[in-house]
């Protein structure tokens, strides 16, 4: 057996592992949250993003160079609201405060907040998303800010075909506090810390691990058959 033939199964295993890891990791969806972004004023349904479970929603706050600013910078609070709050772009009694964009002159660039679109969260203040449902974010300008109320609609793909539950107008599981460590906080490109998984989330990841093992074993057997 030539050395290249011996390495073939392992190469296939690495390839399938990298492909699976990319799928599990998900995509990142960037939103530049400021009044100069024309997508917030789209007449065709407003600013809407379709995401999948394990994707990330990245919110970039307004950022300014002090010497270039004319007037006051935008600053606001970002809230998760129900459909009523989204349509009217105002804070409803059940609204959940997610973040504050109040550092327009941050030294390391625009402040970025990230929300992971996941079914289960290990954080007590986190949001659990369900496939086939819609979620809504709005921004309330600070009293001294010249900005206006902006809003975003998130569509989580895809609606299950085996359940009769209707789509919700807001988070299915209500958050249990204000703000929360669930969302990653960034200045520039730094990464936040990840904590342990809940028991039910561990079960989901165990299934992913089994799929990874099966794919690797299949690739290994295929390589041997080729040789």
| Name given to the CATH architecture of the domain at 23-157 | Sandwich
Extended strand count:
9
CATH superfamily of the domain at 23-157: Cupredoxins -  blue copper proteins
Low-pLDDT parts are 18-23, 162-215, 219-226
Q: Averaging pLDDT over every residue, what do you get?
A: 71
CATH class of the domain at 23-157: Mainly Beta
By helix and strand content, what is the structural category?
Answer: alpha+beta
What is the tally of helical segments?
3
Element order: H for helix, E for strand: HEEEEHEEEEEH
Spatial ordering of strands, largest sheet? 2-8-7-4-5
Indicate the percent of residues in helices. 25-40%
Membrane topology: Lipid-anchor; GPI-anchor
Family: Belongs to the ephrin family.
Disulfide bonds: 61-101
InterPro entries: Cupredoxin, Ephrin, Ephrin-A_Ecto, Ephrin_CS, Ephrin_RBD
């Amino acid at each position: 057996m030539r050395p290249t033939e011996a390495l073939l199964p392992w190469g296939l295993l690495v390839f399938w592992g990298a492909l699976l890891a990319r799928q599990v990791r998900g995509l990142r969806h960037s939103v530049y949250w400021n009044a100069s972004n024309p997508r917030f004023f789209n007449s065709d349904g407003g600013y809407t993003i379709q995401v999948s479970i394990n994707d990330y929603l990245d919110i970039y706050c307004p950022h300014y160079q002090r010497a270039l600013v004319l007037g006051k910078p935008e600053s606001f609070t970002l809230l998760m609201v129900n459909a009523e709050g989204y349509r009217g772009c105002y804070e409803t009694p059940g609204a959940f405060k997610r973040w504050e964009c109040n550092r327009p002159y941050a030294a390391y660039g625009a402040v970025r907040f990230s929300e992971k679109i996941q079914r289960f969260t290990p954080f007590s203040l986190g949001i659990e998303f369900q496939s086939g449902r819609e979620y809504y974010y709005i921004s309330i300008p600070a009293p001294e800010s010249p900005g206006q109320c902006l809003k975003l609609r998130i569509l989580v793909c895809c609606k299950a075909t085996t359940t009769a539950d209707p789509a919700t107008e807001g988070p299915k599981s209500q958050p249990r506090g204000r703000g929360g460590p669930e969302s990653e906080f960034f200045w520039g490109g730094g990464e936040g810390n990840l904590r342990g998984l809940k028991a039910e989330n561990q079960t989901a990841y165990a299934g992913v691990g089994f799929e990874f093992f099966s794919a690797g074993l299949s690739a290994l057997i295929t390589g041997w058959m080729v040789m």
